Amino acid sequence: MPEELSEAKANATCAIADVWEVLGRRWTLHILKNLSTRNVIRFNELKRALDGISSTVLAGRLLELEREGLVTKKIYPEVPPRVEYSMTPQARELEVIIKDLARWANKWRRPDGMKTAAIAPQKK
Amino acid sequence: MPEELSEAKANATCAIADVWEVLGRRWTLHILKNLSTRNVIRFNELKRALDGISSTVLAGRLLELEREGLVTKKIYPEVPPRVEYSMTPQARELEVIIKDLARWANKWRRPDGMKTAAIAPQKK
DNA sequence: CGGTATCCTAGCTGATACTG
DNA sequence: CAGTATCAGCTAGGATACCG
Q1: Which has the higher per-residue pLDDT, B118 or A78?
Q2: Strand D proximal to B57 Cβ, under 7 A
Q3: Among chain B residues, CA nearest to A69
Q4: Whose CB among A40, A52, A82, B26 lies 3.0–4.6 Å from A76's, allowing a Cys bridge?
Q5: Residues 6+ apart with CB under 8 A from A34
Q6: What pLDDT score does B11 carry?
């Protein structure tokens, strides 16, 4: 009777809604991707990896992800300061789904248009 | 040998990027949800179902979805005009993944904050 | 009915500082 | 190093009006 599967009138997307809002934002997916390849990563390290993102935005994205329970930050009271970000188990599970999505995307990749330039994050 | 699974440096999200841009936009998920419950649906019918969306935006979203190959429109040269929208097989496959996502979202539904209030029990 | 054409605004995004 | 504060630009989204 879990209606996650059989709902017909209520909105199944409700629960997704807020996560979706975060995931849909710029850079978020790329941040997650970078996190997924390493266990932990530091702020500027991540910033360099993304190259093009500003501190402002990166900090914002990370905060959102943290609030959604997808990322945890660990602060080391040192000087110079060190902060390590990592994915939560929740995010690890999401990772799997995103890979399904990636597989799906590759499978149906537009054979004609080819508008999906290999790298291009999605600027502008 | 398909590295959709094992990639470690390239961006797996690349292929997703443009679909993501569409899926991440407002209303899109809801449109898809409505389409998924019915085989075909007409413009204003959909508009009523979403209630709150403007013609401008709905038309835009539908066009985007069509371009992504997720939706097809069928125009009947009648008067008054009738246009039916439906999901493509590609979208049907995506539907499965989105349900996985919904399941994931429900599973990890914030037990504490409860900011994701299904129907918002408390205010603000 | 099923859209387009216009216009307007909130807010995301980014650049540029500046701190602990 | 790891951010915040501030300001500016652009654009997605919505309201409104109109047409085939």
Answers
A1: A78
A2: yes
A3: B110
A4: A82
A5: A41, A46, A49, A50
A6: 46
CA–CA distance from B25 to each of A22, B29, B88 (Å)?
Answer: 11, 8, 19
Find residue A82's DSSP bridge partners.
A76
HEC states along chain B?
Answer: CCCCCCCCCCCCCHHHHHHHHHHCCCCHHHHHHHHHHCCCEEHHHHHHHHCCCCHHHHHHHHHHHHHCCCEEEEEECCCCCEEEEEECHHHHHHHHHHHHHHHHHHHCCCCCCCCCCCCCCCCC
* Å between CA of A16 and C1' of C9: 27
For chain B, list residues with pLDDT below 70.
Answer: 1-13, 111-124
DSSP class of residue A38? Answer: S
Which of A33, A94, A100 is the closest to B11 by Cβ? A33
Q: How far is CA B78 from CA A88, A104, B74, B81, in A?
A: 55, 37, 12, 5
Please give the structure tokens belonging to residue A44: 């500027």
Nearest CA in chain B to A5: B99
Predicted TM-score (pTM) of the model is 0.82
Number of neighbouring beta carbons within 10 Å of residue B45: 14
Substitution target from A3, A16, A38, A124 for chain B, most B beta carbons within 10 A: A16
User: Given this model, what pLDDT does residue B111 score?
Assistant: 59
Cβ neighbours around B18 below 10 Å, total: 21
Query: Which residue carries 């599973």 as its tokens?
Result: B107
